Amino acid sequence: MNRNNTMWLAEAGSVGLSRVQKIANQIQQGDHPAWWENVYDWVEELQQALKLDMQSLHNWLADQNIDD
After folding, report:
1. How far is CA 18 from each of CA 10, 15, 26, 37, rounded to the nearest angstrom?
2. Distance between CA atoms of 44 and 23, rounded to whole angstroms?
3. Which of 8, 42, 57, 67 has the fewest CB atoms within 10 Å, measured from its CB?
4. Which domain of life is it from (predicted)?
5. pTM metric for this prediction
6. How is the chain classified by DSSP, letter by letter?
7. How far apart (Å, rounded) are the C-alpha atoms in residues 51 and 20?
8. Chunked in runs of 10, what are the mean pLDDT values of the chain (68 residues)?
9. Residue 23's Cα: distance from chain center in Å?
């Protein structure tokens, strides 16, 4: 993999996926004081974020000129 591919992979990881990562981290924090009260809401939020953020990532990737 050349340097350009490595750079666009790093950019792709930051396009919209930070929200998914944040929510997933909350779900994994079982020691959070209000975890049981919030976990189902977080799962729903994660499902919505995945739909939106994956579409954003897909669109971003489609716009890139990737040199294999």
Report:
1. 12, 7, 12, 23
2. 10
3. 67
4. Bacteria
5. 0.64
6. --HHHHHHHHHHHHSSHHHHHHHHHHHH-TTSTTHHHHHHHHHHHHHHHHHHHHHHHHHHHHHS----
7. 10
8. 51 70 87 89 92 83 72
9. 9
